[in-house]
Design a protein that fits this description.
Low-confidence stretches: none
Largest sheet: 7 strands, antiparallel
Number of domains: 1
Order of helices and strands: HHEEEHEEEEHH
Bound molecules: heme C
CATH superfamily: Cytochrome P460
Structural class: alpha+beta
Helix content: 25-40%
Number of strands: 7
Distance between the termini: 72 Å
CATH topology: Chalcone isomerase
Mean pLDDT: 89
Length: 168
Amino acid sequence: MTRKYFYPVFIFSLLFLVECRKDTTPPAPETDAALFARATSGGYTYYKGDASVHHSSPQSAHGGFFRVRFNAIAQAALTDQGKLPTGATFPNGSIIVKELHNDSTGTQLHGYAIMEKLPSDTSQADGWIWAEVNTSGAGYTINNKGAICTGCHSIDDRDHVRLFDLFP
Ligand code: HEC
């Protein structure tokens, strides 16, 4: 190749490589702050449209009282009478928030247990991101990769969500 052609071809190849890299760059990893902001924003639907607060099942580590809500992406997958069909999986970007309450009045919220479906994120375990925090967003961070969560949550066959079988 003559000099005349070398530089244009070289620069073109470089640009081409940079463009390709852009396309394959994975999305920025999830953070505790971003997840907390999303989990406490609007656009959620309570399980079966029922906003009442229930006593946790004896199988729960979270104790006390709770209600669960789903973001729009997760909600769209609840096609089996408000539940995820057996053997199905939630779409990426699904967020499930378990509000943790001290009693059943609905006014004594003290924190959130959160699951976010992001199988390609560096903090995922079993396809989900896991956090359990107080109302300021501090607590069990996503960096723990759900180490204390996944044992209980892998028991059933509805994509790691316990509620559907325990509160049908
Ligand atoms: C000892 C077992 C156990 C452990 C450990 C546990 N969970 Fe749960 N979790 C449950 C049960 C049972 C439910 C169903 C609701 C209830 O009875 O409170 C539940 C409900 C949830 C829900 C609502 C969706 C669903 O699965 O029903 C979320 C979100 C959640 N847990 C997140 C977490 C996170 C995050 C952790 C770790 C920090 C965790 N859980 C650890 C047992 C557990």
